[in-house]
């Protein structure tokens, strides 16, 4: 049985590597990106190798994440946990606590304020739909897209992640790596996520609920994700039909099960 988030992903790849795991839409840019479990695992492995080989991220390390809800964010989170590190979600942190981290990964549009701090290591993400690098940037942050592509597709941690080690710090919430898996399973059960579900989650709901809800709970349940940034409400019903969505989290679409709500509510 899976003991850490990395195990959850490995289990999914063993069960059905080719099936879609994460489909990402951005209604502001018009982009759509679909990743199978194998492709997600590939990005996770490359990112974990980058973190471990370039920044010595391992058990006891802290990785700060200043990223929006995005498919690349999923890869970064799972990579940090694959290394056995603690993820610090900056959405609920004061900037002053970032000096306790080993590396910070941030969206390009959030790099400015971070550059003014005395951070040990800073990586910038363009969040380009094809994984391309940053453009128009001349600051000190290293470019995630350029750095990650040279790293291997198979990741072997220097030491196996300990389920009892710290895994997530989100405001007052602190969970171990094993606690993340337990919380994900419990939440999936409470919400009613089941194996085979295609779960549509909008950006606002995902940001408010945190990564256990939008990423790990569907993964633990054997479901797949349809993430929507800057959602256009008028497009959601047709999109849900095209993507064969079976359940929604935070968004109500006629004829589709709303997670966490009693039948008929």
Automatic annotation (TrEMBL):
It comes from the Bacteria. This is TIGR03089 family protein. It comes from Geodermatophilus sabuli.
